[in-house]
């Protein structure tokens, strides 16, 4: 079903479809030989292994577009093409409590949600992802500045006042007027 068809559904039909989709997705994800979660910048995967497994017992390959995990000499637990490229040098794996492999993959595109880990596995609906709220203090300086500017501009628009960019233009015009009192600005229109 595409977006246009979905939009034509009544509220009750949408809720029923969303619930059915969530249940199907949960069943598909539960059938995978691992669990995974993601943030915009990274993906974390937990692969259960037999109790007592140590790092030297494992064959793990993390490549830009490929992931392979298994016990040496046995069939691979997972093996395939990653749905998106990763930063190999920033991706890691560890054995936790000798019963699970924790794999951390750093996304190259930090602005995209992944539909799945391996391309041949079931997909999730990324349009329904609700990221956890982050605090402004969690953001780096540049990002924080952008978010604060956007919040200010949005607040100004709601009050019918000029945005930060419009304020800068008006300030520049006032400085120009002050520097050139001989000019007549009575008929000037600012756009």
TrEMBL record:
Ranges for region Disordered: 1-30
Key words of the record: Cytoplasm
Compartments, as annotated in UniProt: Cytoplasm
Domain CS stretches: 29-118
Gene3D superfamilies: 2.60.40.790
One Pfam family named in its UniProt record: CS
Residue spans of biased composition, Basic and acidic residues class: 1-27
Chief location category: cytoplasm
Coiled coil (residue ranges): none
UniProt KW Cytoplasm keyword: yes
Name of the protein: CS domain-containing protein
